[in-house]
Design brief:
mainly beta, Neuraminidase, six-stranded mixed β-sheet, about 45% strand
Length: about 725
């Protein structure tokens, strides 16, 4: 009977003073985009109404700022479209609740048009809050030196020379190590015959925003109308990107880059449909991805005119890629009149996006509304899972699930089965297949290499399935059902795991009393596999639960085997110990990953040694290792955990982050070589059987880097496939 998998959530797939000027590289706008669209707009629990529109009051064009305490937030906006400034509120809890309107000087009500609030720091370290606004065709500003308690009047900006300003500064960023501030907006020449023309201009401040120098035109495209710039600094800090709205609506939104802190800019290019819109605002999420919110204006977009978000990388924009996700953040009941936003990142990773829009489908006018989300929530919405096999007594056992992708793109799942538990003489190896990326599965079929035909009481246990371009190698342990006469073998297949070579002993001492686990291929072309080997097993078996017996393995040692010839020959390295106790028993399953500098990092299960994983590393490619592993602070109940290299020092960890129980099953990601784990997401909270265990996740990263596909056993009777979306971040140091 075939198994059929379904996604956990339904997700729609929608298949100089004047710098150089040129038309954008702009093919005809395509009808759609192919990245997933995640709709958060119907989740009212995420949303907060900051200022309510009425039948007579239109609340419009907000911006926000978050103070360094991570919780105090200000919002400013206008009455009517581009109208009177003055409304301001403060939140003391990261945007969950808001004050009444705050008192501001009367002069604020005499200025108009999309007030922009910033926290700016001068070269001496003095911080001020600024609100920039428009008076006629010129810019004005007010500031506070006491975190928003009191404010100056709105005044003309000293030193600023601009012919016809269209709106206040849309974007401000520090440059030259904070010595200066670079601001940009859109303006018009005084003699331009097109009264609605737009050029993007920039200005420099050397005193923290109090005064500004004459503007320079940085994007002048006579056939188009670039406007509303947004500066984004590259992850390495070396480049600035300027993302721009295009107001003729005949090409997509635009971007250009600067490698000299804004002194010169590249020719503008078009972004993809997925990022085409107005008034972009950007923040880096804690995992390194970019989140950009804006008004969607892609002509064929299913969310055109609504408040949306984009998730991707800086590199995606520069290379004109679509990104990872599109988000529908809020639904707008007023055509395309919405989307001038603020975007803030809270210390816990929550992103708070605030805009104006017609929030209710009634006579009430526009309101200022925010919504909030975390990256882990977005990723969870892309996950998919299914039960591949659900065992029934007397052969319900599922253990040691291992999921791999073959050279032809199909998947195989190998597991330990038969009998109701393990270890037992009945145990054997099973294999199932999926040709549609885990959606459906063949029946699980036994493979036993002739072992069972010779001795039906010999148990077989799969340890690792290594997929190479020309063959697959399955590592199998064979024992008497209780780890007596324990041998480990390799078997090879050249036809996609359909037929297998005779078993051959594992290399050297690992032919006895060993498990060999997940292989990696290093950047210098070698293959490494971590092992656990036991110095001795009890000669006499003793009884354990459920009628089982065991020759207890003792004094575990860990290391790696290495091959420089594609797995034809192997060398053994390492003799890592967890404890000086030569009679210590634990299933010291190890996993390894190669870091950016070539370090081979190893984690080790360490039953009975404090409820955490242990760690060891090799600085010479796995050739030398410490005598003893050391404790980490990663909780572990005594269960196999698996590592997955994501490039450079980015590493994913599948494990049970609980020192006492094998639940939940979680995905953690480190961006600094296992030092810290800022991305933490529970994938499966608990077993289908209340109080049951979630065991032994093992799988692979998809070729496009979007998913971690793996299998685990749910309480030893269900083989479960899980595809976990992982953050796609710019590759560095790979």
């Amino acid at each position: 009977m075939k198994s059929i998998c379904l996604a956990t959530l339904t997700v729609g797939l929608l298949a100089a003073s004047v710098f150089p000027t040129a038309a954008a590289e702009a093919p005809a706008i395509s009808p759609s985009f192919s990245i997933p669209l995640i709709d958060l707009s119907q989740d009212a629990d995420r949303q907060v109404v900051v200022a309510t529109g009425t039948e007579t009051v239109y609340q419009g064009h907000p911006t926000t700022v978050l103070l360094p305490d991570g919780k105090t937030m200000f919002a400013v906006w206008t009455y009517n479209h581009g109208g009177e400034c003055g409304p301001m509120k403060r939140s003391d809890d990261g945007g969950k609740t808001w004050s009444q309107l705050l008192p501001v000087p009367e002069s604020w009500r005499k200025v108009k048009n999309c007030p922009a609030i910033y926290r700016l720091v001068d070269p001496e370290g003095k911080a001020r809050l600024f609100v920039f606004a428009q008076l006629g065709e010129g810019l004005v500003s007010a500031y506070s030196e006491d975190d928003g308690k009191t404010w100056t009047d709105m005044r003309s900006i000293e030193g600023l020379k601009m012919e016809k300003s269209v709106m206040p500064w849309c974007t401000i960023t520090p440059v030259e190590g904070g010595k200066k501030l670079l601001a940009a907006t859109n303006a018009r020449r005084a003699n331009d015959p097109d009264k609605r023309s737009n050029n993007v201009v920039q200005s420099i401040s050397t005193d923290g925003g109090l005064t500004w120098g004459p503007v320079q035109i940085i994007c002048d495209m006579p056939e188009f109308k670039p406007c509303e710039p947004c500066f984004i600094r590259s992850p390495d800090g070396k480049q600035l990107l300027c993302l721009m709205r295009e107001n003729m609506r005949t090409i997509n939104s635009l971007f250009m880059v600067s490698d000299d802190e804004g002194k010169t800019w590249s020719q503008p290019k078009s972004v993809q449909d997925s990022l085409t819109g107005d008034r972009h605002q950007a923040k880096y999420a804690p995992d390194g991805r970019l989140v950009i919110v804006f008004r969607d204006m892609a002509p064929e977009s299913p969310t055109r005119g609504h408040f949306v978000g984009w998730v991707g990388t800086y590199d995606d924009i520069v290379n004109q890629r679509e990104g990872q996700y599109r988000l529908k953040l809020l639904h707008n009941y007023a055509g395309t009149d919405c989307g001038y936003p603020g975007l803030e990142l809270l210390p816990d990773g929550t992103l708070v996006a605030t805009t104006y829009l017609k929030y209710w489908n009634d006579r009430r006018k526009h309101s200022v509304v925010s919504t909030r989300f975390k990256m882990e929530e977005l990723d969870a919405g892309q996950d998919r899972t299914c039960v591949v096999f659900d065992g029934k007594s007397p052969n319900k056992l599922v253990c040691d699930t291992t999921l791999r992708q073959l050279a032809d793109g199909s998947w195989v799942l190998v597991m330990l089965g038969d009998g109701d538990t393990e270890p037992m003489p009945a145990n054997r190896v099973f294999l199932g297949r999926s040709t549609d990326q885990g959606r459906t599965w063949s029946a699980m079929e036994p493979i036993d290499f002739g072992v069972k035909s010779k001795d039906p009481n010999k148990a077989l246990c799969p340890c690792e399935l290594m997929v190479l371009p020309d063959r697959c190698t399955l590592v199998v342990s064979v024992h008497n059902g209780g780890f007596g006469d324990w041998k480990t073998y390799f078997a090879h297949s050249t036809d996609g795991c359909r037929t297998w070579s005779p078993l051959e002993p594992a290399p050297g001492k690992l032919a006895d009393r060993s498990f060999i686990r997940n292989h990696i291929e290093t950047r210098d072309g070698r293959i490494l596999m971590p092992y656990q080997w036991y110095a001795h097993c009890d000669a006499e078996a003793h009884k354990i639960s459920l009628g089982r017996f065991i020759h207890t393995p003792r004094d575990p040692r860990n290391g790696v085997i290495a091959s420089s010839d594609g797995g034809k020959t192997w060398e053994i390295f390492g003799n890592i110990r967890l404890t000086e106790d030569e009679n210590h028993h634990c299933w010291a399953e190890a996993n390894i990953v190669e870091l950016a500098d070539g370090t081979i990092a190893m984690i080790i299960r360490a039953d009975g040694l404090g409820g955490v994983l242990y760690y060891a590393e090799s600085k010479d490619g796995g050739r030398t290792w410490p005598e003893f592993a050391r404790k980490t602070d990663i909780p572990n109940p005594g269960s196999k955990a698996t590592l997955y290299g994501l490039g450079g020092d980015r590493v994913a960890l599948l494990h049970n982050p609980n020192p006492k129980h094998r639940s939940p099953l979680a995905l953690w990601i480190s961006f600094d070589g296992l030092k810290t784990w800022p991305y933490r997401r529970v994938l499966v909270a608990e077993s289908v059987d209340k109080g049951g265990r979630l065991n032994y996740p093992d799988g692979f990263v998809s070729p496009d880097g979007r998913f971690l596909h793996f299998a685990f056993d749910d309480n030893r009777h269900r083989a479960v496939y899980y595809g976990a979306a992982i953050p796609m971040v710019q590759k560095t140091g790979d």
